[in-house]
Specification:
alpha+beta, Butyryl-Coa Dehydrogenase, subunit A, domain 1, Butyryl-CoA Dehydrogenase, subunit A, domain 2, Butyryl-CoA Dehydrogenase, subunit A, domain 3, 3 domains, four-stranded antiparallel sheet, 11 helices, 9 strands
Length: 380
Amino acid sequence: MIPRTLFTPEHEEFRRMAKRFITEEIAPHHERWEHQGHIDRELWNRAGEMCMLCMTIPEEYGGMGVDRGFSAVLMEEQMYQGATGPGFAVHSDIVANYILNFGTEAQKKHWLPKMASGEAVGAVAMSEPGTGSDLQAIQARAVKDGDDYIIDGSKIFITNGYLADIIVVVARTGDTGDGAKDLSLILVESDREGFSRAKPLNKMGMKAQDTCELYFENVRVPQSNLLGDVEGQGFVQLMRELSWERLIIAILSISAARYALDCTLDYTRDRKVFGQPVASFQNSRFKMAEMKAEIEIGQVFVDRCLEEVLENRLSPEAAAAAKLWTTELLCRVVDEGVQLHGGYGYMLEYPIAKAYVDSRAGRIYGGTNEIMKEIIARTL
């Protein structure tokens, strides 16, 4: 197969550190977190101590100032061990970037060092009970009152929401009739009066990942919590980061597909049927050969997109294509993996079964795959 040339020796040294961190600090506790519905708060502090958070943030704000290749390495290593619980990517590569790119100097200096150390956990609140991929239909409102905003509404499916200390809230601040021009991003601290959250949602998969519903009832925040110089920039700000967010999903998905194939290879080599390993049958070999080929092809495209990210020129349609292809591929791989496990593939004690239920969300979040097709179709 084609060797990967994207990562430098520094990336690979970090990979060894990340793998060890996940093996020692995450893997032994993951099953307990699945029953708990969220990871332990202490893991955030530990991840901060190990410089695993907000790595791309400049050093002056508490980060390491490294490129996004380091973020990709951490995502890959999480998926290579089936560690879907920690929402590090949302915290470090989405929320922190909103603050870095659009925040005031005071906002950056206050929040980014805390996020890098793990003292503060970040979340972004977009989806609502009646609004998913159509961000322009968001109903949560932020109304000016003196020097403050008063925020009302609810958000759902919020990763890191249960433990979050700072939340980037997408809210409607205008009534122009143009949904895109009426949205703003506002920072909301979780200790604000009127803010509350439900218990972690009872999801089909990714049960260790902190995901919940948030409620805002007359939540008062200062207007200085607005991200950006003026109101109505929220949609543009979201679009600027959305391509990277979708590539994050692609990185996670292609890595999870590789993990699912490895689990299947290990099982079929040991499991015997009719006196010989399942892996020795031609059907098994051909199925796994197909999976291997598609994963390698997908990896090349994801790596090329990551190169585009490092050069700050990844197009929305390329990110959409990467997200579409890899999430669909992941679902095919885990489905074949379950089939090759036979009855044991249906047992949640086996990693392939967990991968099966964990993988399905990828075709929904970050914009459904139907939306990805629309984005790609616009370029035809």
